[in-house]
Amino acid sequence: MSETDSMASRQWLPPHLRSLGTTIFAEMSALALASNSINLGQGFPDTDGPEVVREAAVTALREGKGNQYPPGIGIPELRRAIAQHQERWYGQVVDPDTQVLVTAGATEAIAGAILALVDEGDEVIALEPYYDSYAACIAMARGVRVPVTLRTPNFRIDVDALRAAVTPRTKVLLINSPHNPTGMALTDNERQAICDVAIENDLVVISDEVYEHLIFDDRTHRPLATMPGMADRTVTISSGGKTFSFTGWKIGWAIASPSLINAVRTTKQFLTYVSGGPFQYAIAQALALPDEYYASLTAGLQAKRDLLAQGLSDLGLDVCVPEGTYFITTDIRPLGFEDGLEFCRALPKLASVVAIPHQVFYDNVDVGKPLVRWAFCKQDSVLQDALNRLSVLKAN
Ligand code: PMP
Ligand code: GLN
């Protein structure tokens, strides 16, 4: 959408939605296409996931599985596979019939949970920089977002700031770990602090764990819902997109207590009702892949992280090495730039590469201004090519 179209569309929107605009991912991917740039912006792998999983989708389509509306809560095979996945990796026991809801990607689970749980004026505390759909969904629910800012170099959680952010209007803590865009993964202490704050203040936690298997250097992911006192107050959200490298299939899910799942289901049923029938069968099979699959996914991405981190550092950028996800954050000031949004809009012309500016994910825009996010879920040759192109910046 052009800037003018985007301005014109605003007149139709109610005031509380006027700040939403076009997502930065759409803007930057369109820029990459138009300028024939290497797209290290939007987070999607440039190679598809396992062939057996793709074949499972083809088989489901051919056998007429899921070609008509699947059940509203998701096919039983997938709900069982999700429950088994939680037990296998985290020892978390959930009932696939009452505690699992299949959604159109994690995106719909986030929207469903926020619309179900947040009333007008309710405050939602979220880690800033926020994944962009959080701010949009909180706005749609007419809630109020309250940031707890993560700062360079390590993006650790300021536990005192988290405690201070709670007010009598706080309803939800919205947590994301491993965290997009910073790559931060919760430490044991941070996880405990979040749970303490949630329990002491009787808050619901929405825990976005889509990068649960993209965690590096022998760190392990632990769902917040498995912490003492958290099972009945946490909505865990994940999806098959990142774990199986099929981001276009949009098979996601929410896991929670039966009453919380019912609340989320109430809104979800009027968003899409159902989606992705045949892909649900394929993701059910994917979740049961052997441990080696998961280990090689992580190891492969860790090697890509190292390649891109080293290359960006050699260019002179300040690199924050991520603990998880497939994004690296850099501070662009050592190269003589100040404003990440201007930098990212100019980058296709300067170097035929696209990246994502952090600042669009902040209320405290100045904190994010010099930060830029680079996706490394790309073939090594593509990462290398991007680094070669970026070397023109060195002279600046
Ligand atoms: N949460 C976070 C933190 C994300 O980065 C993304 C994008 N992958 C999503 C949710 C949305 O996931 P999905 O594509 O499954 O809707
Ligand atoms: N999650 C992806 C990212 O952060 C983008 C998904 C989207 O385009 N909405 O890059």
What secondary-structure arrangement, pairings included, does this model have?
Blueprint: H1 3-10, H2 24-35, E1 38-39, H3 51-62, H4 76-90, E2 100-104, H5 105-117, E3 123-128, H6 132-140, E4 144-149, H7 159-165, E5 170-176, H8 188-200, E6 204-208, E7 234-239, H9 240-244, E8 251-255, H10 258-268, H11 277-287, H12 291-314, E9 318-320, E10 327-331, H13 340-351, E11 353-354, E12 356-357, H14 365-368, E13 371-375, H15 380-390
Parallel strand pairs: 1-11, 3-4, 3-5, 5-6, 6-7
Antiparallel strand pairs: 2-8, 7-8, 9-10, 10-13, 12-13
Helix pairs in contact: 2-13, 3-11, 4-11, 5-6, 5-10, 12-15
General description of the model:
The structure is a single chain. The chain is of the alpha/beta class. It is 42% helix and 15% strand. The protein is built from 15 helices and 13 strands. The chain has helices at 3-10, 24-35, 51-62, 76-90, 105-117, 132-140, 159-165, 188-200, 240-244, 258-268, 277-287, 291-314, 340-351, 365-368, 380-390, and strands at residues 38-39, 100-104, 123-128, 144-149, 170-176, 204-208, 234-239, 251-255, 318-320, 327-331, 353-354, 356-357, 371-375. The strands form 3 sheets. The chain has a 7-stranded mixed beta sheet with strand order 2-8-7-6-5-3-4, sandwiched between helices. It has a 4-stranded antiparallel beta sheet with strand order 9-10-13-12. A two-stranded parallel ribbon has the order 1-11. Helix 2 (24-35) runs parallel beside helix 13. Glutamine is lined by residues 23, 25, 42-43, 180.
